[in-house]
Write a structure and sequence with these properties.
The protein has a 4-stranded antiparallel β-sheet. The chain is α+β, with helices and mostly antiparallel strands. The chain starts with 5 loop residues before the first helix and ends with a helix. It contains 6 helices and 4 strands; from the N terminus they run αααβαββαβα. It is elongated, with a radius of gyration of 20 Å.
Length: about 160
């Protein structure tokens, strides 16, 4: 946790919990100058802690009710090219290089199971993809979260 103190972590918690509050409100709640809050936010951004200010979107109400994790095995000589080709599939919403089963762990969305089958066929037809293994999400019990780690770091600091 090099270079981050309790104030940084308190600010980070506010940003995660209320991203629309704004710098002025963060500085008011933390009882610090607005410039101090802005400087700390800039530091968190430059360090790669704050990656985006985009909202987290639930695609199910937009008609994409199926989510699946797909382990993708790819030809080792074509990793970057295959990943670039896969990005042409709009239903691909996340891809991670992993150890263990497969080379990539991708998260896809689809309107329904039939549509997911079409998406999976598109993945398998992608040049460089050798095989896949899919797991359909039945329900999301815990959304992506970071506050527990921020709280742990704050307690350790």
């Amino acid at each position: 946790m090099d270079g981050f103190d309790k104030l940084d972590l308190d600010l980070l918690r506010l940003i995660v919990e209320e991203p629309r509050a704004g710098v002025r409100e963060y500085s008011r709640r933390l009882n610090i100058a607005r410039n101090t809050a802005q400087a700390r936010i800039t530091k968190l951004e430059k360090a790669g802690v704050i990656v985006t200010w985009r909202p987290q979107i639930n695609l199910a109400p937009l008609g994409y009710a199926v989510m699946a994790f797909v382990h993708v095995h790819i030809a080792q000589s074509q990793v970057n090219e295959t990943l670039e080709r896969l990005t042409a599939i709009p239903e691909l919403i996340e891809a991670n290089t992993v150890s263990g089963e497969g080379d990539l762990l991708c998260r896809f969305v689809a309107r329904d199971n039939s549509h997911f089958e079409d998406v999976l066929q598109a993945v398998m037809k992608t040049e460089g993809v050798l095989r896949t293994r899919s797991e359909i999400v039945l329900s999301r019990r815990i959304w992506p979260r970071t506050i527990p780690i921020v709280e742990k770091l704050r307690a350790e600091n």
